[in-house]
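Data card: per-record layout.
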Amino acid sequence: YNMGLEGMMLMGALTGYLAAYESGSLWLGVLAAGFTGALMALVFAVLVITLKVEQIVTGLAVNLLGAGLSTYWLRSAFAGHGQTPTIPFFADVPIPGLSDIPVLGPILFDQRVLTYIAFLMVPAVWLFLFRTRYGLIVRCAGDNPKALDVKGVRVAPIQYAAVIFGGLMAGLAGAFLSVGQAARFVPDMTSGRGWLAIIIVIAGLWRPYPILVAALVFSFLDALQLQIQGVGIAIPYQYMLMMPYVAAIVALMIRRSRASAPVMLGVPYTRE
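The structure for this 272-residue chain is written out next.
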């Protein structure tokens, strides 16, 4: 149960920004962010899979580490600067024809390249999990690891691979914030998005396509609160900022059942 996504996203955002700033290459920044997220996930995996440390506590520790370390490294790198310097960022890439569709065109087909990659990852992950033998093995490692063990399949390497892949994705998500959107790193710039990602997975029934729908709903609410603030409606902006998080709480209240979650979620497997 990787509760450390927030910290992995923060560290990915920082290293992505620093790598892009020093090298002048946005793609090198993206690679650095993904590597950092994967490295933090490896540390998390060693603690929870090999050493059997409590998973939620370890995740919280990773979040605290990411928040503190990212702020410290940023201040060390730009000591004496009033504000962190900006870097170039990925421009929007409209898809000819599709981006001209009323309403949905600009929303879905006039985005940055990292957004398109995120969309493509959904069918790719679905095909892997539900249409390949290795995907079946990964799902079985979460539902019935003992069955894999009986068949002679080592469970730990599969769990390591899954956790590291999740960390890689978290690091890339952080890169989107710093390299793909803000063009700089700001302490705590994830603003709880790592926690929202966990809630989105739960609301999406642990399935790629429903997770995509849930992510789009939360993204719509996040964008809506920004638009409402810009219109100048006489509502305190703090209430607007609450919208995605209130929706997250409602989603958790509705999705109280663990029926769709992996059976062994949060339970360390010990080989007999």
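Known properties of this structure: The chain has eleven helices and two strands. Residues 5-190 form one domain.

See the next section for split statistics.
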